[in-house]
Predict the structure.
Amino acid sequence: MDILITVGLIFLIIYCPLAFGAVHIFSFTLMEMGALLLLSAWLLKQVWNGPKKGPLGAEREGGKYGIEIESTPLYYFGSLFIGFIILQLIPLPWQTAKIISPGTLKVYKEAFKELPAFMTLSIYPYMTKINLYKVLAYVGIFFLIVNWADSKKKILGIVHALIALGTFEVIYGIIGSLGGYGHIWRYKKIWNPQFVTGTYINTNHLAGLLEIIIPLAFGLFIALSSKKNMNKEKRTGRIEGIRGFLLTLNFSDSNKAKKILVIFLTAIMILGLILSGSRGGILSLAAGFLFMSILLLFRKKFRKHAVALLIIGAIALMYGLHVGMDLTINRFEHMEQTANFRMRFAKTSMDMWKDLPVLGAGLGTFQQAYRRYKAPEDDHWEIDHVHHDWIELGAEMGWMGFGLVFLSFWFCLGYFLYLWKKRKNSFSAGIGLGGMGAMVSIALHSLTDFNMHIPANALLLIIVVGITLKALKINHHGRVGNGLKKRERKLNQERITIYFLGWLRWPLTMIIVGAFCFAVVTVVKPLYAERVFPTLPDSTVKRKAPALDDVCRAIGYENSNAEYFYQLAILLEKEDGGGQKTEDDLKKVEWAFGEMGKGAEADLIALALRRAIQLNPTNPFYHLKLARHILSKRKEKADQAESIIANAERGFERAFYFMPNSAYINLSVGSYWLWKSKIVKEEEAYIEAYDRFIQHFRKTYQINPKYKKRIQRSVKQYYPVDSVLEPIFAPQINAD
């Protein structure tokens, strides 16, 4: 089992970054399945080869087997975070939701005519569920590392794999950018083709990967400077100067050769970071190096390595100047321009955080909830991340989730620093320092980017945190816990052993295998649905117009994806011209709606749109589509025209409420009020409708002047005089 776990971990370390950073559903689902397999393998190993108690191998005579788990306070933080996510997914009575999160209740009040009896705190449970699976994989891998990496050899194996990965990413990226290849594998690079991105789509995310690996590589350099090798150098004597240093290099000494190789590879990775052009990445790594240097200066034994750290950085910088860093320098010159829109994202995201302060909008729901807060300047962008991991965390998880992660980071860093100061062997000091440097670098970069939303980077950071914890408990014998003082052993190496009778091994094995199969089916269902009809971002999939069969099959695999029902409504509208259903249509979609979908009188289009809104109530396009569909029924049901218009009007107002700074939404809502201004008879209703369409069209033009001709055509259909257009296109007066 140890071989399987070792190979599996190295596979995940290499595969996830190479698969575009595991940002697509096929790659992060494989990551989740890998985590499940490795955890199951470790559990089976414990069940069959764990510690024994009583007569060894004598199950019939009372012999017991045990599952041994290493205890660490870091488990509690991961468990609480998972608990918060699950709380966001549990349907709660609206009275309870009102107490826990009044902001969420307000969202539901705006989205529905009548409040549902039960509601989730996540505004879009499907996306929260997808992200919960990722978090469970991260926490599971951390648990595995803490309980599996019990020797220096295992930790070094992980470190070597990470350094090899980082080196490959840089070399592949340099060849691709400087050689003009312009592709990631066989897919054409769309973003930043002139910069080094490795196998990542975005330069900043390659920088995030390197920020994790480079400090660890330098930590390995320190780890190789063992007391034994230093004593050997003292015995052979020293010759001063660079010439003397070169003469003393003995490449037959494998340890010294490894140190030189590590320096060389570290310099290559720093060069790759510089050529990536990631300003936040470069500054964050510099801050991480400064943090590591300060710690080294306080340890007399390792003080000289602070100088080595600066030398490595200088070598990479000089080579970068030789190769050419014009593009990177140019990006720094335009930093103010980029900072302006990122500050705007952060400010508007803080408004979202204020409205949902306790538990947020739901993990993974930022893109959906943010539409209401998006600034008019950003109308042409679909913003899926705020470029600030910490603020996005607060917006999605509220103060409780943000506070937990923030406290976890500082507790973890402080705990590692406490252990690091007590470790005297070079291995613990080196790997421990590298791990802390990686944590500081990525935490700082998270102030300007969203690396923790890139599954590969989040996974590698968790792995580094795990091996850092284990390295800080390694003694000079290369094992965890042996030879430590009694007080330290009690603090650092507490283990919990759960004993069970030997005859229970087979039932436990069946339970583990069954749980593994169930979990795999659970995480794979969204992947199957996305393969039939993709809705999540995926640059590797060639999208095509879906057929009704495709959407129905996708719903069969995953019926909590709101986009499937929205697309179902669009297809039904196209196929039957507005609701006249064929028998074949009924058979295809009947199961999606249950009893409500049966019978010729059922309006499947309206049912599909209402189901989409029920699953994702903040999407303005669902409300807009439903409002238009309801309005189209007024001629068929002339006796209910007044009620139909009122219902449609509520839909238009909801669309505007959830995306008030969208030119398209304002144009659509303005068109409705323009139409209404010509059908109402009461003077008061006419004045209201007239003022509303002027207001919405004016805002449409202010957000996006390209809509001017469409506005002119729409208005002149009803009001063929130019005076009506004057207040719409009049220059906006600046209040200042």
